């Protein structure tokens, strides 16, 4: 396990799902963790869980990241509460379904506001604190959907997740002079609270399409983030790690037979 005992982290979208998994893993590696989201009740429950598991320091920040002013306020509050920031996990994201035939301008605006502008403005707001840290790390949660694969109903979502990777490559170059690395994790199908509601048959069918035979857990993503947040990853920047149990490997269904 990487030692993050001198590290202060903000995980946006840390109240549930993948973000909470990231917070669990980083806190168990010793990090002081701020988790942010809009819903205060889920945030409080997440913080209680992290503290009960022995987290060194847990801070909650309630706020939207869907506009520049709001994202900046979330980051500023976390930096003030933690006394600085070493790692930003820009994880908050939404994935509403919309087929092209029905997609409205509002559908596209909303998903780009949260997934793309929210990522860019969170990173922008965190740069002064990450620069002061001297070992700044940004880890984005992208997806296999968009950068690698497609799925009907999620074309606008895939566009936002690919956009995050376009952003990270140039940002990594700009921020390298400040010793800040910028990387991404690309989860496959991860068993979150939302997915669990789809039922056992559906989940079993999904698992059959994955060479390693199971959906990922939020902690599987957290372990990849822990590496990218660690001192050991200091020379890795502008990169992305697919964490999908081999889901994107088969070139046809027969490859899994
Ligand atoms: P989730 O369970 O729905 O959690 C999303 C988190 O983001 C929650 O904490 C949510 O809290 C927060 N959030 C949503 N909109 C927000 C906003 N406008 N401002 C601030 N916080 C906001 O989703 P998840 O499955 O863990 O997904 C997390 C990330 O992983 C997303 O970027 C998603 O694209 C990516 N991902 C997920 C999967 C998967 O299989 N689950 C696969 C690939 C990639 P509030 O709603 O209370 O704000």
Short description:
With 257 residues, the chain is an alpha/beta fold. It has helices at residues 17-28, 40-52, 68-82, 105-133, 155-176, 193-196, 200-208, 218-229, and strands at residues 8-12, 32-37, 57-62, 87-90, 137-141, 181-187, 240-243.
Task: Give the helix/strand layout.
Blueprint: E1 8-12, H1 17-28, E2 32-37, H2 40-52, E3 57-62, H3 68-82, E4 87-90, H4 105-133, E5 137-141, H5 155-176, E6 181-187, H6 193-196, H7 200-208, H8 218-229, E7 240-243
Parallel strand pairs: 1-2, 1-4, 2-3, 4-5, 5-6, 6-7
Mean pLDDT: 97
- Whole-Å distance between the termini? 35 Å
Helical proportion, percent range: 40-55%
Tally of separate helices: 8
| SS-derived structural category | alpha/beta
Q: Taking strands numbered 1, 2, ... along the chain, how are they ordered across the largest sheet? A: 3-2-1-4-5-6-7
Number of strands: 7
Structural description of this entry:
There is one protein chain. The protein has 257 residues and is an alpha/beta fold. Helix content is 45%, strand content 14%. It contains eight helices and seven strands, in the order E-H-E-H-E-H-E-H-E-H-E-H-H-H-E. It has a seven-stranded parallel sheet, with helices on both faces. Strand 4 (87-90), helix 4 and strand 5 form a beta-alpha-beta unit. Helix 4 runs parallel beside helix 5 (155-176). It is globular. It starts with 7 loop residues before the first strand and ends in a 14-residue tail after the last strand. The model has no long low-confidence stretch (mean pLDDT 97). The protein binds NADP nicotinamide-adenine-dinucleotide phosphate.
